[in-house]
Input
Amino acid sequence: MRLLPGIGAVASMLALAVPSPAAAGSARVAALQTALEARGLYAGYVDGVRGPLTRSAVVKFQRRHGLGVDGIAGPQTRRALGWRGRPRLGSRAMARGDRGWDVAALQYLLQRAGHGPGMADGRFGPLTGAAVLRAQRAAGGGVDGIAGPVTIASLRGGGGVGYAPGAPTGPVAFLRPVSGLIGDGFGASRAGGRSHQGLDFPVPYGTRVGAAGYGTTIFAGYNYGGYGNLVMIQHRLGYTTWYAHLASIASWVGERVNGGTRIGYVGSTGYSTGPHLHFEVRRYNVPIDPISRLLTTVAARAKGLRRLDARQRLECAGRPLAARADPRGRSWIARERLC
Ligand SMILES: [Zn+2]
Output
């Protein structure tokens, strides 16, 4: 494990606190959470972990449909979920245009393995297709974009960027996306009893934002849940980094980025009270406090702060928006209002 001097001790302690892959949840529960989320009954994370939120959502669903109320998603409950309750994972090869329980389970497995797609809606669209291709390339077998038994087994068995049973789940450290002091930290209270799930860098409008590490951009576009212009980067070991409220975006879905690659410029889009960068780190899609994983090195290559000049504005404005994905409320992130 390569680490810069000084953070090794902190990072190895942190590694103990990170949930093990085994505790990261099951695809079956994730598919259930996705179906319940679509019904407006589940407001938690699609994390594959059967907790109180999942159980109470099942109970509500069962009451609503006059089913036996036991909080367990048995055959009857799954039938009542319609297309979102079937077919079971592995019963068919999934391809573009498919939808169902198995697609939601697949999306969870892909996400857990570090390939994206950054959303779980039970529909096999372009983002899911791109994630399947990434998973197949990483597995080193056939690359056809169709999620059949081999792909599923590989994902289940740990064929991911950073998910392999018994493999070291080493500590990960991130560069600072911008220079400057940190304002609100992780856990700061927010309106409506929410707590802040990232770090805020109160830096001027137009400050260049650099990727916090090597990875692939899995979302670049507007998020209606409060993040505004948002870039999400998938890193190894199930980590994603999020850069929110951007004035403009300079990356695209599928772009391979290194630490420091310019991905956008600081702004105040979405639910934001003024220019700042909201930087969030998630593991298996659960926000974590990134502070101890943050290196002192700044990812932005430009020295100091830099405002958008006319050429950069043009460059950012010129990128075709149609090429960027848009979750339109159907993603894991869409409901949150964090800043
Ligand atoms: Zn924030």
